[in-house]
Amino acid sequence: MSKWLGKWMRKSKIDNESLLSAIKNIDSENNVDLGSGLYKVRVARLNQGKSSGYRTLLVYKQDRLALFVYGFAKNERDNISSKELSILRKQAKQIIELNAKQVKHAIACGDFIKLESENEK
Predict the structure, then answer these.
(1) Residue 78 structural domain
(2) Which helix (H) or strand (E) holds 100?
(3) Residue 22 covered by a domain
(4) Deepest in the core among 48, 52, 96, 110, taking most CB within 10 A?
(5) What DSSP assignment string belongs to 5-61?
(6) Is residue 121 situated within a structural domain?
């Protein structure tokens, strides 16, 4: 996940398991392919369902990369603007083009945060 999303996650009390579950269910009908490897993915609010929960934006390339880059509560905002979407699609393309060494470097530098299950820690 991005550094910004890590802070937002802690503030919103979203656990790693919720995000990992969202990645596993990427093909769900509740998730939207926004193009260029960018997906809008629903994440449930603690002790509530997904419909009243959070929306996250995920850069995703199957079996290679899953990077949460943005999130918002449904009750705070309906959606992202078309200008924001355009910028995020360009960023998604750039992120997907990163090779494994570049991704590892971004994690080592703290630009990306590796999402681990509680069982992996």
Answers:
(1) 3-109
(2) helix 100-109
(3) yes
(4) 96
(5) HHHHHHHHT--HHHHHHHHHTTTSTTSEEEETTEEEEEEPPTTS-STTSEEEEEEEE
(6) no
